[in-house]
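Help: why these numbers?

___
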Amino acid sequence: MSERSVWVNGTLLDGDAPAVSAFDHGLLTGDGVFETLKTYDGRVFAARRHLERLAHSAGGLGLALRPVDELLRAMDQVVAANRIGTGRVRVTVTGGPSPLGSDRGPSGPTTIVAAAPQPPWPDSTPVAVVPWPRNERGALAGLKTTSYGENVVALAYAKERGAGEAVFANLAGNLCEGTGTNVFVAIGGRLVTPPLSSGCLAGVTRALVIEVTGAAEEDLPVDALAQADEAFLTSTTREVQPISAVDGAALRSVSGPLTRAAAEAFAALVRRDMDP
């Protein structure tokens, strides 16, 4: 077995060997859902919340999941097999082998669990607001699916402009989310993040940061991001990452008091409870 091992439909396999059908519906149509979880010292963080969100996303696509206990064991197996300390684990569920079209085949879903080390993110990052809106009324709104083509294009747009993340407005012109992040802004001493009705993903780190900081959930015009006193991104792997600039213009404060308080409160939560 190579240095990379993956778990596919109940079996631990060589990560470099063919393991998924060329006719898998996830590959053919993007018919799939996934979760990324972070590991600390080889232990998976917030597994319950992530698997609950995976079930929500799978339900939205009509995909069946394997039992929770089996997925937990699979994650532990893959982390151990790959000797992951600080890293990421990804659980992906697709529509399985299917015809060349939108219909699913009869074989049932494909489930893949993979893991990799997680390099540290920069201390802060500039962001770029992209010209394409999120559709908060779309069939996939609020689901974490493998249909990431829009995110790929948006992130490339941001990186061409020297930014480390792309930020979307929604159809209403309100602040929504990043390609793999949620956004928090500090205005007038208050910490605010877009509500789920904006079309943003219900991020696990987002929810935990709201719980430990009391941040409000309110609609904000997308321009509020550039006008914020301070702002930060949240995600499973970034945790709390300060935003340094928006569309090339520096924010008033990078890692200001509310950002630091959020980062410290989240770090304290990780230290005291691995499955909050």
